[in-house]
């Protein structure tokens, strides 16, 4: 886990996806899972999630990493998703013919996705705090395992 030291503006790279044909709410469900994570962890999450929105987001994250390695010369292992947002796009409207000469509107929503990545090796404001983190659980002292079959039949003798 990474923690911010100070706030200063550093160079960031981004990738934009406009007019992606899916609802903004469905894409936002996936974006909320990857915001603030590292590049490698994000790729693993997106490959294993069962949603249709994962593939275009995967392509955008990969594109942002390619932009970072080309423009800034940074290593992909040091990249962090600093900002990820989904905005509602235009709605494609068509009319489908129905019975008795009527028409039925079909609305296909689109969305705009923005992925912003930051190189944390260049940025001195992040420090590693995994070793400082305390575990959430505490090991409880448990009684040793008691086998009811080898206890001499005391349990089964009671009526």
UniProtKB/TrEMBL annotation:
Keywords: Chloroplast, Plastid, Ribonucleoprotein, Ribosomal protein, RNA-binding, rRNA-binding. One of its GO terms (cellular component) is large ribosomal subunit. It is found in: Plastid, Chloroplast. GO terms for molecular function: rRNA binding; structural constituent of ribosome. GO terms for biological process: translation. InterPro entries: Ribosomal_uL22 (IPR001063), Ribosomal_uL22_bac/chlpt-type (IPR005727), Ribosomal_uL22_bac/org-type (IPR047867), Ribosomal_uL22_CS (IPR018260), Ribosomal_uL22_sf (IPR036394). Gene3D superfamilies: Ribosomal protein L22/L17. Its main location: plastid. The keyword Thylakoid does not apply. Belongs to the universal ribosomal protein uL22 family. This protein binds specifically to 23S rRNA. The globular domain of the protein is located near the polypeptide exit tunnel on the outside of the subunit, while an extended beta-hairpin is found that lines the wall of the exit tunnel in the center of the 70S ribosome. PANTHER family: CHLOROPLAST 50S RIBOSOMAL PROTEIN L22-RELATED (PTHR13501), LARGE RIBOSOMAL SUBUNIT PROTEIN UL22M (PTHR13501:SF10). Part of the 50S ribosomal subunit. This is Large ribosomal subunit protein uL22c. It comes from Metastelma northropiae.
């Amino acid at each position: 886990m990474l923690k911010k030291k100070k706030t200063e503006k550093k160079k960031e790279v981004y990738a934009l996806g406009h007019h992606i044909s899916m609802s903004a709410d469905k894409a936002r469900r996936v974006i909320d899972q990857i915001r603030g994570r590292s590049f490698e962890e994000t790729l693993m999450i997106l490959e294993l999630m069962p949603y249709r929105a994962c593939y275009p987001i995967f392509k955008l994250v990969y594109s942002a990493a390619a932009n970072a390695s080309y423009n800034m010369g940074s290593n992909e292992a040091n990249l962090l998703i600093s900002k990820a947002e989904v905005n509602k796009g235009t709605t494609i409207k068509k009319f489908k013919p129905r019975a008795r000469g009527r028409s039925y509107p079909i609305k296909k929503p689109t969305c705009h996705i923005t992925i912003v990545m930051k190189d944390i090796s260049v940025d001195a404001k992040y420090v590693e705090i995994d070793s400082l983190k305390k575990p959430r659980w505490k090991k409880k002292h448990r009684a040793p395992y008691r086998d009811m079959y080898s206890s001499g039949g005391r349990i089964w003798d009671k009526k």
